[in-house]
Amino acid sequence: MAYSQPHPRLSLLSNSSQSSVDQFSPTSSSTRFSVPPTPSIHSTLGSVKPPSGPRPNIYDRNLNKTRTSEVSASAFTFLFSEIVQYTQKRVGGINDLERRLNTLGYRIGSRVLELMAWRAESSSKAPKREIRLVPALMVIHTQVWKAVYGKAADAIEKSVENADEYMIIDNDPPIERNISVPRDMGGLSCSSFTAGVVEAVLDGLGFPARVTAHGTPTTQHPCRTTILIKLEKSVLEREEMLK
Amino acid sequence: MAIHGLWIINKAGGLVYQRNFAEGLAQLTSNEYLVLAGTLHGIHAITSRLSPTGSSSGAEVIEGESFKLTINLTLTGTKFVLLTSLTETTAEVILQKVYEIYADAVMKNPFHTPEMPIRSEGFDSKITTLIGSG
């Protein structure tokens, strides 16, 4: 039930669905990296504490200021729930919904990678960029997960059947904890958002891949989710050469 | 010491969740449950206006000869009702925990429509862990 005439204020996501070809190439669509207008959070803060002098701009703030600060998990869950509801109203099916959540995650992932690289550069004497696949996956499994969710993922597995497939497994993903997918939407996994984050980080590190999320519940972990990474051929060829 | 059933009534008086936890209870049709919940909603509204000393939040416990009905009214108007035996002393605590589970598993679930019947596996399983399956 996609809207025939998207409202001009609709998110850029609604545009990307019409031209789905360019949605994974950041260079071709500048709207993907649009900068929001002046953050409104300051106006609410201002009423509590009278501002002294000019209002501080969020873009002038030191990036390390928020390195150890945390976000309320409840508030984030409500936000994510609204994101899913908002997206669901604007799609035709489960695949479309997953793709849009993936795109949203992609926007987060590309920023997370840049921020992590910047912080690694300023904090360690020998900052390192991962160029081999397995260490890169390890970084995603531990550091990226910690940066985004505050905990490491639970396992990395390599597919037995296909050489180009790897899996990152989270037994209890924080964003899925309170979500019960109705039966008629069986295959949906809201962790497609996480898959988007992983895809962006892999893209940024130079390992282009297609990343999808699948619910793989066990009796002990009903929310267990597998993030499936299908690498592009070029990555495997390069890995062979580097050996 | 037994918990018979749990009801959740939305702010308009509609029954959005009903579950029995014990064997051998009187079997009612879902329509009868809806009527009972609507009646309780009305009674509750009346009791809140009966208070001789200023405003009141309405009935909190209704006791019969063989059972006790504990009502927890939230700030948003949702009512949690627990039907227990007379000797059950933990009803308030359980209702508070049910409210907590409701806030987590129902309100944070993007596939739930507010004020509509609750169909959530997560909520069901968490209630089962709290109270038991029955």
Q: Which of globular, elongated, flat, extended, rod-shaped describes the shape of chain A?
A: globular
Q: Could you give the order of strands across the largest sheet of chain A?
A: 1-2-4-3
Taking the sheet with the most strands of chain A, its summary is: 4 strands, antiparallel
Specify the CATH architecture of chain A: 2-Layer Sandwich
Tell me the Rg of chain A in angstroms: 19 Å
In CATH, the architecture of chain B is: 2-Layer Sandwich
| CATH topology term of chain A | Muramoyl-pentapeptide Carboxypeptidase, domain 2
Q: Main beta sheet of chain B: strand number and arrangement?
A: 5 strands, antiparallel
Helix/strand/pairing class of chain B, anyone? alpha+beta
CATH superfamily of chain A, called what? Answer: Trafficking protein particle complex subunit 3
Subcellular location (chain B): Endoplasmic reticulum; Golgi apparatus, cis-Golgi network; Golgi apparatus
Family (chain B): Belongs to the TRAPP small subunits family. TRAPPC4 subfamily.
Subunit structure (chain B): Part of the multisubunit transport protein particle (TRAPP) complex.
GO cellular component, one term (chain B): endoplasmic reticulum
Explain this structure to me?
The complex is a heterodimer of chains A (243) and B (134). By secondary structure, chain A is of the alpha+beta class. Chain A has a single domain, classed as 2-Layer Sandwich (Muramoyl-pentapeptide Carboxypeptidase, domain 2). In chain A, 42% of the residues lie in helices and 10% in strands. Chain A has helices at 12-18, 41-48, 73-88, 94-123, 133-149, 192-205, 233-242; strands at 155-158, 165-170, 209-215, 225-231. A four-stranded antiparallel sheet of chain A has the order 1-2-4-3. In chain A, a hairpin with a 6-residue loop joins strand 1 (155-158) and strand 2 (165-170). In chain A, helix 4 (94-123) packs across helix 6 (192-205) and helix 5 crosses helix 6. The radius of gyration of chain A is 19 Å and the shape is globular. Chain A starts with 11 loop residues before the first helix and ends with a helix. With 134 residues, chain B is an alpha+beta fold. Chain B has one domain: Beta-Lactamase. Chain B has a five-stranded antiparallel sheet with strand order 2-1-5-4-3. Chain B is globular. The relative contact order of chain B is 0.20. Chain A binds chain B through residues 74, 77-78, 80-85, 88, 177-182, 185, 190, 222, and chain B through 104-105, 107-111, 119-123, 125.
